[in-house]
## 1
Amino acid sequence: QKEVEQNSGPLSVPEGAIASLNCTYSDRGSQSFFWYRQYSGKSPELIMSIYSNGDKEDGRFTAQLNKASQYVSLLIRDSQPSDSATYLCAASGSARQLTFGSGTQLTVLP
Amino acid sequence: DAGVTQSPTHLIKTRGQQVTLRCSPISGHKSVSWYQQVLGQGPQFIFQYYEKEERGRGNFPDRFSARQFPNYSSELNVNALLLGDSALYLCASSLGLDLRQGAFFGQGTRLTVV
């Protein structure tokens, strides 16, 4: 069973802090990795994608990938209350379908 | 440019009935995938269609079927509805089979089976 595991949380951080979200995957054939943000009652919104080992930065978001450790993470700097949502990690490989984790609920406290 | 559009947004059906959900992808995107998301879980892959052909199928019973039209829109059909089919059904649009450029979700169809 190809799986994506996320720390289930919930995770609470104060406003302005760094939120760290983690994800591991079991399928070594996975090639592309994605972070989606999902507000309550809404659909997932793509916020980051990463394919190569290392860091990828986009504004306040940094995705990190370590294929040897089969580990993906998302850092959110200067967290805002509007970042409060469930964050979904997803992997895609040769099957070209997204395999999702169960999500981590993040709350940013004002 | 319009994003991914799904219809209807909400639906209530009775056990044993059949339902059809519709999806229009982003203009220029040729691949549509369907996902089921139950409360508290991540989306689960149901189907992928590309150029009107089924290119992938998840672990769902034969009661689930789909098709893609020449304009790349898609329909998901579920027959003989069960209470457990109650979920958010998501359509994802991508340029092609390769998801490197991302898969973008519509607003979803909330299906309730009573």
Note: Chain A touches chain B at residues 4, 31-32, 34, 36, 42-46, 49, 51, 88, 90, 92, 95-103 (CB under 8 Å).
## 2
Amino acid sequence: AQKITQTQPGMFVQEKEAVTLDCTYDTSDPSYGLFWYKQPSSGEMIFLIYQGSYDQQNATEGRYSLNFQKARKSANLVISASQLGDSAMYFCAIEGNTPLVFGKGTRLSVIA
Amino acid sequence: EAGVAQSPRYKIIEKRQSVAFWCNPISGHATLYWYQQILGQGPKLLIQFQNNGVVDDSQLPKDRFSAERLKGVDSTLKIQPAKLEDSAVYLCASSLGIGTGYEQYFGPGTRLTVT
């Protein structure tokens, strides 16, 4: 079975600062993918970034980057230059031979 | 490109009543998912369709939940009879294909309250 652990229920960050959201995973699948989604108060899940288990380089998408450490089974999300609009729930998820499994999420609050 | 559409957005019912949710995926997306998201948790997959066939329904409470995807496009999720613990947001998502790497696009969800 696959499992995602997000140990930070809530995080605060000052506007324009960088923030790291932690994610560790457990899987026995040889090939898997890791996703990060953002869920604002409106409720819709918004895809942010994807990392394949065999990708050599860490994924980046604009202000989002994924710090993938395979040996430690971690896939932390780094948001650079935080904006007020980044305030939301953030979910890490894993997909392998079974469909997407989500963590419990981290609530990020950006302070002006 | 139109996103995933869901209706209704909100629904309040009494326990033991029945309810149905509708989802229209992004055009051309073969794979459709229904998730249940209980307050304070991440989404949990209920059922996954590939075209109009079921790929995974291992976490669907089949004694009260049912889902169908006729003609491989729209899908409905039904709960009958509803229980208090079914209060949650029901999210529909779609993707181009199946397997690792295919991004799932989510709809706005239906917030169900069972009283």
Note: Chain A has no helices and twelve strands.
